[in-house]
Amino acid sequence: MSIAILLISLFGMIIIGVPIGIALAGSSLIFVLVTGSVPDLVVVHRMVNGVDSFPLLAIPFFILAGNLMNSAGITNRIFAFATALVGWMRGGLGHVNIGASVLFAGMSGAAVADAGGLGTIEIKAMRDAGYDDDFAVAVTAASSTIGPIIPPSLPMVIYGVMASASVGQLFAAGFIPGLLMAVSLMAMVAWYARKRNYPRDARFDVRLIGKTFVHAFLSLMTPVIIVGGILTGVFTPTEAAIAAVAYALVLGLFVYRTLNWRRLLHVSMETIETTVIILLIVAAASIFAWILTSNRFSEQFAELLLTITENPILILLLLNLVMLVVGLFMETVAAITILVPVLLPIAMKIGVDPVHFGVIMVLNLMIGLLTPPVGMVLFVLSRVSGVSFERCSAATMPFLVPLVIVLIMITFIPQLSMWLPTLIYR
Predict the structure, then answer these.
(1) Cβ(335)–Cβ(374) under 8 Å?
(2) CA distance linking residue 333 with residue 48, whole number of Å
């Protein structure tokens, strides 16, 4: 009954439009005041402890690195290289859109950053080439979900903190799933291109590929520095984020000279704003998750699930369903911090590795970014493109099919996620 107070107050606040961070903290405070189970000061202490974590320092630096890449014009160079590389295929700019997202994924680690940064360039280019607005928005939305799967990844950092899992292994585990997502989305684009008779947007030219590669080479070195440094043990994920910021500053200020102090100040303020929002959600979700755990909600939920079935395949399907439904209504960071203590013990009971489960959870929640009513990526692209939220949602629905297929593959073929971490960290 006491947990019902917590959940009812949370969903009540969400329904009336209270921001998710305030809703999580507010419902936790209501629970404490109504039940009197712990002093109300515990809410503050638990929220502070929730963000008192060294790996979480990576969050503001990865956000800053992504913002710097966007402001320094680095995304334009990546887009030009991707155009030369895959633009010759039928429906070329659709493939370019996905290829650019794969390249940019190694820099930002956030789907919203990809959608807001690359999305502006991609949608304009596709419009100018005569592609339908719906198709342009749908491809951009779907491809942006690759960002948090291929390292670095902000959701993976948060999951690693909550699950006490190695962030380095989580980063390694995302490589192959991320590439699978790209291949499946490109197959979808190829189908659309044939159905709608979309053109080839560039001719295949090895010299052009070489020229644009040289032009983008220093930009493309960013993921090499970040991921290579982590996997070789040169620095931790947090230190890698700082290295990414330093490298982006060098490129923007001294090499490309596209950053000035006014733009740098604007980027810094954007980063502070985004970081504050994320850390408020993490702090609020920490007290919420602690209340759930201390009231044995996780154990009771596990027992309930195991009374329905003890078949590992069915349990994994049910866990995926729970995560997909939560992703419909809750922001990614909040969902991770709440779901990890509830669902991870169940997954481990049926033999799922925490690193493997991290990839499954993040991909589920990325799909949630493409679905109403929350759908953060859809809101961003609606604003960027001028297409209504409803049209964005409807256009993106078909692209959920390849993503769900990849999700099923990753869920039931653990080697797709675990082969690389096992190879590197054995």
Answers:
(1) no
(2) 16
Contacts of residue 211, Cβ cutoff 8 Å, sequence gap at least 6: 84
Question: Which pTM was predicted?
Answer: 0.85
Q: Which of 298-307, 393-402, 417-426 has the lowest mean pLDDT?
A: 298-307
Domain borders along the chain are 54-425
* CA atoms of 250 and 155, how far apart (whole Å): 27
3-class secondary-structure state, position 152: coil
Residue 39 in tokens: 């002093």
Rg (CA), the chain: 21
CA distances from 223 to 80, 175, 217 (A): 18, 12, 11
DSSP 371: S
Give pLDDT tens digits for 279-290: 888 888 888 888
pLDDT in tens, 177-227: 999 999 999 999 999 999 988 878 778 889 999 999 999 898 888 878 887
Q: Residue 154 contacts by C-beta under 8 Å, 6 or more apart in sequence?
A: 58, 59, 62, 63, 109, 110, 148, 278, 333
- The DSSP code for 90 is B
Quick one: CA dihedral 257, 246, 336, 142, positive or negative? Answer: positive
pLDDT 10s digits, 75-117 = 778 888 988 888 888 888 899 889 888 887 766 666 776 776 6
Neighbours of 331 (CB within 10 A): 21
Which residues lie closer than 8 Å to 210 by C-beta, 6 or more apart? none
Residues 68, 247 contacting (CB under 8 angstroms)? no
Q: Measuring CA to CA, which residue among 207, 146, 187, 158 is closest to residue 56?
A: 158
